[in-house]
Structures are given as structure tokens and as C-alpha cells.
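Q: Joint fold for the lines below.
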Amino acid sequence: MNQALERHLNILDFTLASLLRRRAKNLSLLAIYLLVVFMLASLAFFVTALKKEATIILSGAPDMIVQRLMAGRQDLVPADYAVEIAKIRGVTAVRPRLWGYYYDALNGANYTIMASEDPAVVPGSATIGAGVAKARNLAVGDLLPLISYDKSPVMLEINSIYPHGADLAAADLIVISPDDFHQLFNFPGGQATDLAVTVRNPKEMSTVAAKIAGTFPDSRPILKSEIQRTYQSIFDWRGGMTLILLTSALISFIIFAWDKATGLSADERKEIGILKSIGWETSDVLLLKFWEGLVISLTAFLLGVVLAYGHVFLLSAPLFAQALKGWSVIYPRFQLVPVVDAYQLSVLFFLTVVPYTTATIIPCWRAATIDPDAAMRY
Amino acid sequence: MIELSGITKSFNSGKPNQFTAVDNVTLTVHPHQITIFKGPSGSGKTSLLTMIGCMARPTSGRIFLRGVAAARPFQQEGLEVVEITSLPERFLNEIRRSTFGFIFQQFNLVKGITVLENVMLPAYPTGEARALFRARALSLLEQFSISRLAGQRVELLSGGELQRVAIARSLINNPSIVIADEPTAHLDSKLSQEFMAIAGRLKGEGKSVLIASHDPIVYDSPLIDSLVEMRDGAIVDIRSCR
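A: Joint structure:
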């Protein structure tokens, strides 16, 4: 075998024996290091997966939504806006949407109620999200009583329940017929909550939006890309908030790791002196310390990342879910699509492994440059 | 053969607390012999041995190695000897590692690792295959009758066992010169005599043994070949004991 490789292997072999000697110190360091990497990697995995999930869901969203503003607040859109917008060149379809929120006093949850033109949703029936089904203990065929604007009950028979896979978008969703929607909220006829606009050429999106805003000065066109950006920002912001909460733990770790890595005990100094006196060069000692730092930090990094992967993608991140998903009563239960951002992992690697390894080597530099004859005088 | 010419070693040069540990020493150390450096503490024995063993450089003077295999690649063309004092650190290290074995007064074994690992330690950075030097280490332990201790940690050993481990470690890279600094300082008379017997064996194997000591068991031993007496950094007497 190559002599240089043998040298590395031999020194690595001694490194492992050396680490085992200070078992308690190194294991406690590894445990804390592992915990920090695990928390940071979980956070990174979770935020990235949520953003990816949101992107997947929004890919089915309309190209553009047109709202109407009244005194700076969102107001109902007259249905005849749809007719005018449909005439704009490049617009393929305009669909008036009816939707709103319903507060369920029984369990304090908010549901999203949406009217659907789907013939499967006949008046008196509803399709509900898994979160709603769980909150109200409902199954297909059961009746869901909702209280209308005038406190009279509207009875809806559950015709189907969305699967858990759709939880991120549909956990709190109740889809009913337009008739039931009007009855439930006393929603005026000839009006819509907003308009879903489909545009043939994505490049024309902003031109179409400008034309709509020109035709209807009280309208507010919102592009899908803008919604996606907002979602990304929300998850980034939530991730950032959680990171701030983790900062104190991070700082404690940095101080702890710095102290452990940089503090050379008298025994360690003496040992370096002995190694020098029996023929080890300064570079050999530094290589030994490099391996020591790398073995601890790389083990912590790899284990932390693997555990974080399991935590987020197999267990659905129980430690972060409540802080990051953002639902209050109905928490969506869903399996995140495994997505790993190489850039984020590299940043985590460079923020954890590299500083620690460097912090281990630097104090040894001085100790390792002592004259080998110093050991003769111990 | 080791030749020293006008070797001086000063510490804290140019400062008020400057002192000269070795003062203008010129000496020839013959190969395959036991050479004893005798003198009281502070007479410069250890400093002289560290310079011979390429651990430190003299402040002035030169050290030549003649007929030392590891030094050959650094020989100047047409010369039989290599002048080690002017060699760069890296080359000096290489010569030190392959030519000299060191036995220290305090044994300087690394705690927490086994006897076998301690013996193998000087060979780790050489790039030699582990299996080879491990076999050599085991054979050395066998030779010094301590193979039963191979897996034991060094802090559990007695003084005599520690010394044997230290000797085995000094021989792992098969050096031609063994340097021992006050090797019997922490041993009783029986173990000291045992050490001298081992030194005699090493000489018999063709090694040169250089010992700094002020122990009569060492410098009065019938096994020694020459005695260099030092005081205040200078040689006061050189005697052949053959």
C-alpha cells in the first residue's frame, strides 16, 4: 500500500485509540454536538420540505387570482367582471370562486369552506378534509351540521373524505355545493369571493394582470408566482424564528466546544512532547489532532443528519411541527416528501465540522512546535 | 561513528540569564560500543545526547555521522560522512526516527493505551505497513519477556516492566544507535543491573549504546567500552574501558 496512505491509516488508528482514552469527555462532546446538528438539520430539512410541498400544491393553483378591493380591504367580486376578463386576449378561462372561513364553536377550529361546481357535490352533501373528520369524529355517510348566518342549522351528508396525503392543503377543508354556500353565509348572488384566471402563455401573465388592473381599477390581480413567493417567505420566516430560539443553545454549544477543543490539558501537552521525542514530526502531531477533530465532528454531523432525516421524513418532525406548520386546532397529518438541499447541507457542514476541526488543530500547533528534546526534561 | 567538533549549546543567548550547557565539546563516539557519559546533574550530559540524537541543534560546532545508513541519502557527493547539524528539520527527523532509539529517565510512555501500542508508537508515522511493525513489536515484547503484558495499559505496570517497555519502544524502528538518559534513576540495583545486561545484549547485536548516567552500577559496569566524564558542560576525561 502507498506509504502516505499507510501513515494516515496508522495515525488514524492511534487517533481512535486516543479518543477512547478520554471516553467520557469525548462522548459528552459528541452527544451535544450531535444534538445541535440534529436540531439544525431537522429545521433545514423541515423548512425545505414544507416549501417543496407548498410548491407542489401551488402548482395546481390558478395562474392568477383576481380580487376586488374596497377601502383597501378585500371585497366580493361582481360575477360580470369574469365576463370582461375572459375577453382579454391570452386568457383561457375565468372561474368565479366561492369560499370563506367557518368558525366551529364546538372545538374552536376554523374550517375553510369552498363551493364546488363538481357534480359529485350535490346540495346537502360535503367532501371534507381528514382534519375536519377527526375534529368532528365523522365518517362517510355521517351528517355534519353547520350553523348558518341566521343560526339555523345546515345539515350536510359526508360523501367523501380527502386522504391524509392531501392534509397540507385540505386538512381543514369542507367542500359544499354553491347553493349550500349561499345559504350558509347569506352570500349575495352574482358575486364571487375572487376569480381564478387561466392564462395560456405564462410569459403574458404580467401583461394580462396589467390589463385587468387597467380595466377594473378596484381589482387586485395576484399571480401564482407571487403566492409561491409569499409561502416561501412564510416558511423561511417561521424557520428563522425557530432558529432564533435555538440560538442560545447554539451559542452554549459553541462556547462548550471551543473550550473542549482548544483547551490542551497538561497531560495532552506532555503527550505531544513524548510523540515529538520518539520521532513524530510536527506535521504528524497536527495530523493526529486533525483526525481527532474530524472523527468527532464528522461522526456528529453524519449521525445528526441521518437522525434528522428520520425525524423529519419518517416521523413527520414531531419536535418542530407545531412551531412550523402553522395550524392552530387542526394540524395536518402528512408525510413530507423527502427533499434534501445540498447547499443547506454544505452550509451546515462548513458551520459545524470545519470550525471544530480547525479549533482542535490550532492550539496544538504551538504545543507541537516544541523542541523534541523538551520531553527529555520532563 | 559519531564525530562532534567544537559543540557548544547555549540557552537564552544574548539575555542576562544566558547559560552554556555544553561548552566546546569535541569527541568521537565509536560504533558497536557502550559509551557512558558520566557527570553530576547539570554537567551537560543530556544536552549533549539530545544534539547527538538530532533532537536539538548546537549553538555552534558540527556533528558528523559516518557509516549510518539512514543518513546516506543526505551525504554530500564524494564525502563519507554527513554533517547533520545543517540539515533541514524534516531530514533531521527522518535520520532521528530511523537511526536513534531513545530511552528516557521517566520512560515517557503514553498513559491510557496498551503496552503494545506504546511500543508501536514511533513506527506509526513512518508509513510502514502496520502488520509489519506490529509483528516486530510483538517479537520485541517476547524478547524482553513481557509479551503477557501486551494488552495491558502502561499505568498498571511496575518500574521494571515500564523500563522494558521503554526499551522495546526504542528498538521498534530498528535503530543502530540507542540513547538512554539516566535510565536507572528510578530503578533499584537489581533492575539497574538488568538494564546493563540488556545494554550489553544490544551491543552484541551490533548497536551503539550511549548512556548518560551518574549511577555507579552503570559507569562501573564491566560491559562498557568508553567513559566520557563531564563537568560544567565540558569533557574532563575520556577513558577507554577495554
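Q: Anything notable?
A: The first strand of chain A starts at residue 64 and ends at 70. Chain A touches chain B through 32 residues (CB under 8 Å).
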